[in-house]
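re the bet — no i am not wrong, look at it urself. input seq straight from the record:
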Amino acid sequence: MAEAVSNPSVDISPISPIERRNSLEKHLQTRPDPKDLKDRNILLDTNAAPSLQSKAQELERQRATDSLKKGLGKRPEREELVERNILPDSSAAPAIQGQQKELQRHMRADSLEQKLQSRPKPEDLVKEGILEANEEVTKE
């Protein structure tokens, strides 16, 4: 392998016992308290003996797993959710389903507008005998 290269910025001189003790004391003073460590999930927040803590944690994880499996077992199938209009009946990726829905809405609006414009006039309906001449035509 390559030869060991000495790095001039690394101090390899021995540390005196007093400096070591001072350094340790300084680090112990800035040490986080147990409550902070429990809040950050570094220490377990339990009253169990240390020898039982791992078993208690494993049992808690198993309880959560069982609860999730039970909930997923009761979960309705996708087809049922589509029938109940909870899920959209779409095979598109979820990321583009919103755009797909917007496009469908615009297409329906355009189709409706086109059909309204091609609708026959009331006069034409009277000529064809669909409407009577004395019926009032309401315009909105």
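see?? The chain has a mean pLDDT of 84. told u. also Residues 50-73 form the longest helix (24 residues). so pay up
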